[in-house]
Amino acid sequence: MKLALLASDSHVARAAGDALRTQYDFVPVRDADVVVALGGDGFLLHCLHEAMQLKDPKPMFGMNRGTVGFMMNDFRAKDLVARVASAKTFVLHPLQMTATTASGRSVSYPAINEVSLLRETRQAAKIGIAIDGKTRMEELICDGVLVSTPAGSTAYNLSANGPILPLEADLLALTPISPFRPRRWRGALLPAASQIEFEVREARKRPVSAVADQMEVRDVAHVRIAMDRSISLELMFDPEYALDDRISLEQFAS
């Protein structure tokens, strides 16, 4: 098995990378079977976005040299090749966001965790919601709203009181951010095949930005979101502590 190595810019990740290079022979990413990523969740997300630019994205085996490392395996230098060979693989499909601005410009970005719409000023956003071409909510008055994948459901979605989705669930979470009207609406669970559209009311008076993971488009008027099953990203985890277990445990965390 041929492994490539990527490390974040942190001192801890660089030191870990230097230590691994003394024990293993790594190859360039283009020649690798698996990419080992050293860093935190943000760095792994960056690596996955970079992988989407390749015709054949490589599986990722992350090891935590960051802070939380929710999507990372524990860092151990010993038996790395054997660990990768026995790892459990999960396949992720990103969301595709197409945003049209108030000036008519159209921009598309992928999102592995979530797409979020956020008010840009002190004024609340007014957003209409349609699912598969049918209007489901004429007007949500809020600070924002987001659509999360199962892999991203424990991130911003959970902070906004959205549901935790098991990784194998073929669902998306539609979660409001500080809803004002309807005040008691807590969001919805949608089939992963759904096409979700947001129409920003009074877009110039109440400007809204759309963010796909870390890519922001400001002053949007319309946003369309759908899962892109043409792109498959593979994450690899030690079998004794896999991502689906971590997501399940989060449902019982206080």
TrEMBL record:
It catalyses: NAD(+) + ATP = ADP + NADP(+) + H(+). Its main location: cytoplasm. Its EC number is 2.7.1.23. NAD(+) binds at D41, G42, H46, N113, E114, D143, A151, T154, A155, Y156, N157, L158, S159. The active site is at D41 (proton acceptor). It is found in: Cytoplasm. One of its GO terms (cellular component) is cytoplasm. Keywords: ATP-binding, Cytoplasm, Kinase, NAD, NADP, Nucleotide-binding, Transferase. Its cofactor is a divalent metal cation. It holds the Pfam family NAD_kinase_C. One of its GO terms (molecular function) is NAD binding. Belongs to the NAD kinase family. Involved in the regulation of the intracellular balance of NAD and NADP, and is a key enzyme in the biosynthesis of NADP. Catalyzes specifically the phosphorylation on 2'-hydroxyl of the adenosine moiety of NAD to yield NADP. This is NAD kinase. It comes from Sandarakinorhabdus cyanobacteriorum.
